[in-house]
């Protein structure tokens, strides 16, 4: 922060299952090419679809970059829009990851709240992006799916005191190209940063619950 820039970390997931090319990482790479403007330092990271990798990687990202905002991007085969997830869930992780592993407890953070909401008002972000004339539809959701996406989101919200976001994208060309998804992510993130800037006086993103 010494240079006056805000720091943002954006992650996408690696391949899994039928997603040999993960649309989320393609979209994040497109976002990296576009950037978030001269006042934002953007760092991107590919995340393996593995619970234990997420457990070690997320705290290190917060420690290394001390970002104002972390946004995780994942692919959903059921999605046809860019979907802003409002909250992460702590329980119900029964699906095996790429290493054929899932937590014994089927839980993300033992003793943690059942659900953590993002401090970002996703409905406002959604409304403003949809009103901007973007050629990509944006919607909101309260269920990130109880797999690595939801798990990552909950852990990130837990680490950040709610100052994280999760965006689901559809598979490539169903119906959007990687380039379209990159532009949509950029519009979404700029709205999130605008909202956080307005709320800066409360400093709620520094709190750790």
Concise synopsis of the structure shown:
This protein is an alpha/beta fold and 209 residues long.
Question: Would you give an account of this structure?
Answer:
- It is a single chain.
- The chain has helices spanning about 25-35, 50-65, 120-130, 150-160, 180-200; strands spanning about 5-15, 40-45, 70-75, 80-85, 85-90, 115, 140, 165-170.
- The chain is α/β, with parallel strands linked by helices and about 210 residues long.
- It has a single domain (about 5-185), classed as Aminopeptidase (3-Layer(aba) Sandwich).
- A six-stranded mixed β-sheet has the order 2-1-3-8-4-7, sandwiched between helices. A two-stranded antiparallel sheet has the order 5-6.
- Helix 1 crosses helix 5 (about 180-200), helix 2 packs parallel to helix 4 (about 150-160) and helix 3 crosses helix 5 (about 180-200).
- The protein is globular, with a radius of gyration of 16 Å.
- It starts with 5 loop residues before the first strand and ends in an 11-residue tail after the last helix.
- About 45% of the residues are buried.
- The mean pLDDT is about 95.
- Its EC number is 3.4.19.3.
- It is found in: Cytoplasm.
- It comes from Conger conger (Conger eel).
Give the key terms.
5 helices, globular, about 210 residues, 8 strands, two-stranded antiparallel sheet, Aminopeptidase, alpha/beta, six-stranded mixed sheet
Q: Mean of the pLDDT scores?
A: 93
Q: How are helices and strands ordered from N to C?
A: EHEHEEEEHEHEH
Category by helix and strand content? alpha/beta
CATH architecture: 3-Layer(aba) Sandwich
Strand content is 15-25%
